[in-house]
Amino acid sequence: MGFIDDAKDAAETAARKAKDAFEDTVDKVKDKVDEHKAEADVKKAEADRDSVQTRNEVKEKLRDDS
Description:
Layout: H1 2-65
């Protein structure tokens, strides 16, 4: 029975390691998705800031021309 028990333990260990590797991969993918979302949010915020600055500059120039 020792051989069967060893084989069973080896199979359980291999399955556990495969599960752990899969979960690690899923976590890494989720982290990358979060990273890309954060970068997109930053780019949007920068674009909004630039838009507001440009609009304010145009308004200021129109005030000076009056």
